[in-house]
Amino acid sequence: MRVSVLGFGGSEIGFEDVEQSQVNKLLNSALDGGLNVIDTGECYLNSEEKIGAAVSHRRNDYYLFSKMGHGFPGSTDPDWSPKLLRASIEHSLKALRTDRLDLLQLHTCSLEMLKEGAVIEILQESRAAGKTRYIGYSGDREEAAWAADAGVFDSIQTSINVAEQQVLGLALPKAHAAGIGVIAKRPVANVAWRWGAVAPTNSYHQAYWERLQVLDYDFLKLPSDEAVAFALRFTLSQPGVTCAIVGSGKPERFAQNAAAAALGPLKPTEVKQILERWNAVAKPDWFGQQ
User: What is the C-alpha to C-alpha distance for residues 22 and 16, in angstroms, rounded to an integer?
Assistant: First the structure.
């Protein structure tokens, strides 16, 4: 697959209940603008259904990624059970209105499950049946490092951003050595600095907000759009990153992010400043955010 440097992340349109008309406009305009990766997951509420309704008629225009492992709407079987995993794949295909995925990923299962291997076997079974072309792991911490080094996955999806750099010395070198794809999730750190001096109440943003209070990067003082562009370019500057998945419910956001990505990597001195600041103040418990 020759993927676009930016991909669309489907969690927000599900969790924030974005109107279908907005999703239609957002995805079709992004595809028209050059995006060719759409990433979602079975547990993102009705994200898969909204994507299927919006762009299934253009199925050959994009690569379609999804995830499995957690319960999807209407499921009752335990997470990670073989029955749930097989049902999850069928649910995703139906919801997305397609007969195949381009990438099917395990969604943050434990290191013990990965090593035991049964969940990987179901992925491989799905690939053999033609339900997905490639298989991958989506997660962080030591699990992502193991997956990058295991020799069974075609890609890993992991958190890489200005507030999340543990992976740079853990999973990324292993993925680069193995020659597998790296999908960067949360590439703009959830724009957690937008909350200013007031801590967000949403736990999804809180950990990064707390870290950024300590990191206090100079670029955070830039106007909002410039700060987002700088953060995205930092992620895209990391060796081995194939694609950055950016989620949004706003149709204009893809064009803004595409313009930022078109500026290319940050200057080496700018990347160095971010890395040095992280190394100077990052705390030992700043683990990857699942």
Answer: 12
Predicted structure pTM score:
0.94
Provide the terminal-to-terminal Cα distance of the chain, rounded to the nearest Å. Answer: 26
Query: Distance between CA 235 and CA 219 in Å, rounded?
Result: 14
pLDDT for 131-159, tens place per residue?
A: 999 999 999 999 999 999 999 999 999 99
The one-letter amino acid code at 145 reads: A
Q: How far apart are CA 40 and CA 138, in angstroms?
A: 11
Report the candidate in 139, 108, 130, 161 with the shortest Cα–Cα distance to residue 282: 161
Cα dist from 204 to 11, 47, 159, 217, 262, whole Å: 12, 18, 13, 21, 28
Phi-psi region of 281 (alpha: psi -120 to 50; beta: other; left: phi over 0): alpha
DSSP string of 92-118, one letter each residue: HHHHHT-S-EEEEEEES--HHHHHH-H
- How far is 170 from 140, CA to CA, in rounded Å? 10
What tokens were used for 142? 């030591």
- In total, the chain counts a number of residues equal to 290
Could you tell me the two tokens for 258?
């595409």
pLDDT band, very low/low/confident/very high, at 289 (cuts 50, 70, 90): confident
Task: Give the C-alpha separation, 160 to 182, whole Å.
Answer: 10
In the chain, domain spans: 6-188+239-254
Quick one: residue 240, left, alpha or beta (phi over 0 = left, psi -120 to 50 = alpha)?
A: left
Q: Look-up: residue for tokens 């700060």? A: 227
User: 6-188+239-254: which CATH number, 3.40.50.620, 3.20.20.100, 3.30.365.10, 3.10.450.120?
Assistant: 3.20.20.100
Whether residue 136 contacts residue 104, with contact meaning beta carbons closer than 8 Å, is answered with yes
Distances (CA, A) of 72 to 50, 53, 144, 247: 14, 18, 23, 20
